[in-house]
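Hi everyone, sorry if this is the wrong subforum. Our group has a chain we'd like a structural model of before ordering constructs, and none of us has done structure prediction before. Sequence below.
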Amino acid sequence: MSGPRHSRSDGPEQEGTGARVLSTRFTDIHYLDEGPADGTPLVLVHGFPDVPATWDGVLELLPPGLRVVRPFLRGVGRTRVVDPGARSGQVAALATDLLDLLEALDLGPVVLVGHDWGARTAHAVAALAPERVGALVTLATAYGPSSELSGGEVLDDAAAAWYRYWLCTAAGAEAFRGDPAQLVRWAWREWSPPGSLPPEALEEVLAATATSGFADTVVDYYRHGAGEAPGRAVYRAAQEALDAWPRIDAPTTFVLGTADGCETPALARANGRYFSAGRELIELDGVGHFVQREAPGAVAAAILRHLRPLAPSPAPPGTR
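Answer:
Right subforum, don't worry. Here is the predicted structure as tokens:
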């Protein structure tokens, strides 16, 4: 694939403290870029339905001096697809966006952290471009095929994920496109224990997802994942590679909540063989789907364990 398309000669457009918009070959990517340019790079990718502010509580617990990059996924904030041939929600598309961002910013190896869709994106990037990922921390959404599950586990997973199949129907897709906020509100109400998530955070998510591209991206993400929508030709090679479920080389920590109303733990408990450098599994009792919002301390601790080996060594005395 060709590299990023930079349409602005002065680099990313700035939109306030830490906010940028980068034009790549397929997408205008809205992202936050904070901390020193030479700091250890930490990239955090939100999920569905959420925004980069989901990581605020985690970042408060991490040391200063990191370079923290937080992109908005397609259809969220000001991230939008500019190439009609690239309009897709498939995982290869999300991974390509992130890879283009990492390349444009010359980042890597990074500590890559993702939740939900962000976890799938992070797994995909680690599989497609292992040189870009020094360590991986993923939350809630596990890596691997459903063939790893037993018959009963498949049924449990399908019951939790009914909305994905609903979006594969014409009636479901039409209803969602007519009122995306209804499903967003439902997810925030049902996927985590009552009282876990502040109402003002939901309002921020609703505002950021009230875009022209959000609903189509969501529908295509789930339809493609279920084999009900074709992928785009521009992502064919990447998608074919991902469909083979390649092993991930980066040291990985996976964190799940036992009270997650969206994802079951079965796949996370069965998929260790897909991680060639090992995969640490952390299960948090009573925590729901939005792990980083509900248990920021546990997520920060997992990130710190991976940050330390990647942090640049201090220069010897007298060399500065």
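For your construct planning: The longest strand covers residues 27-34. Residues 91-105 form the longest helix (15 residues).
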